[in-house]
């Protein structure tokens, strides 16, 4: 990926990609420019050859402070001057993240508030530094849940706890986030990226097709009846049985050697 981004950063480390929100002075708020560059980068991820895992993090003291307040105010004033609501708000950013076929690990280095909080919900795994803080604070700025949080949050932590966090709009720490099942684990700030890389490496070492299909079946299961989930699993498993990676996994097990997967 060769785009010249100013507000985000992208780097490759073998099979692992690291996507960093890189506007620390604004706490990585989702300004129009940052949002546009982030959208462009996510759209390019499918073109990255042999990419197997993405780590999503932020630079500086914040993961993302959410929406840009100046942009919010200008948009609201413009809508009022034009007689009320204009074009529908778009959840296109969360749709982009949810369409990523490979696993995404959110390495939450600091405050994950509002839109930053909800973008983390679209990721498959979430680990955080002990200093991280979280908040579904939409009501504080006169807004309601977005980016799929009305769906994802209650499925991750349960409707009762999700209702409390959204309706009180309170800030909570990494320890509580871990206790309620929002996070997979909490670590020290210095160990956050090394631990994310370690997790990414574990995933990248597995058969790529099987990992992609596993993510698909888990996501499909969120919206399915048991019968629909069983049907989808049958299709996914049939596909996996036909892959060269499946053959290599079995052969390497029988031959007691390290597998070499091709992603097909």
Protein described:
It is globular and about 65 Å long. The longest helix has 16 residues. It is 46% helix and 16% strand. The protein is built from eleven helices and ten strands. Helix 5 crosses helix 6 and helix 9 runs antiparallel to helix 10. The strands form two sheets. A six-stranded mixed beta sheet has the order 1-2-3-5-7-10, with helices on both faces. The two termini are 23 Å apart.
The structural domain count equals 2
Supply the CATH superfamily name of the largest domain: 2-enoyl-CoA Hydratase, Chain A, domain 1
Any idea of the CATH class of the largest domain? Answer: Alpha Beta
Give the total of beta strands: 10
Give the strand order, joined by hyphens, for the main sheet.
1-2-3-5-7-10
Number of helical regions: 11
Secondary-structure class: alpha/beta
CATH fold type of the largest domain: 2-enoyl-CoA Hydratase, Chain A, domain 1
State which percent range the strand residues make up. Answer: 15-25%
Task: Give the termini separation.
Answer: 23 Å
If classified by CATH, what would the architecture of the largest domain be?
Alpha-Beta Complex
Biggest sheet features: 6 strands, mixed
Radius of gyration: 20 Å
Low-confidence segments, given as residue ranges, are: none
Shape: globular
Mean pLDDT: 91
Percent helix: 40-55%
Q: What order do the helices and strands follow? A: EEHEEHHEEHEEHHEHEHHHH
């Amino acid at each position: 990926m060769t785009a010249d981004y100013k507000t985000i950063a992208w780097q490759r480390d073998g099979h692992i990609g690291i996507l960093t929100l890189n506007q620390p002075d604004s706490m990585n708020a989702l300004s129009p420019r940052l949002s546009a560059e982030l959208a462009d980068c996510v759209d390019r991820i499918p073109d990255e050859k042999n990419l197997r895992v993405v780590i999503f993090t932020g630079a500086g003291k914040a993961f993302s402070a959410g929406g840009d307040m100046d942009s919010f105010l200008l948009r609201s004033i413009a809508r009022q001057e034009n007689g009320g609501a204009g074009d529908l708000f778009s959840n296109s950013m969360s749709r982009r993240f949810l369409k990523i076929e490979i696993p995404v690990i959110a390495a939450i280095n600091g405050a994950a508030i509002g839109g930053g909080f909800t973008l983390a919900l679209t990721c498959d795994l979430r680990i955080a530094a002990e200093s991280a803080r979280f908040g579904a604070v939409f009501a504080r700025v006169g807004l309601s849940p977005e980016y799929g949080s009305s769906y994802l949050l209650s499925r991750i932590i349960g409707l009762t706890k999700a209702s409390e966090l959204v309706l009180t709009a309170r800030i909570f720490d990494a320890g509580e986030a871990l206790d309620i099942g929002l996070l997979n684990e909490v670590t020290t700030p210095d160990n956050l990226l090394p631990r994310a890389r370690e997790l990414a490496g574990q995933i990248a070492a597995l058969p790529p097709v099987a990992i992609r299909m596993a993510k698909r079946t888990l996501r499909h299961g969120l919206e399915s009846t048991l019968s629909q989930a069983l049907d989808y699993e049958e299709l996914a498993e049939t596909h996996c049985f036909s892959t060269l990676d499946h053959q290599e996994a079995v052969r390497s097990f029988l031959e007691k050697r390290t597998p070499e997967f091709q992603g097909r």
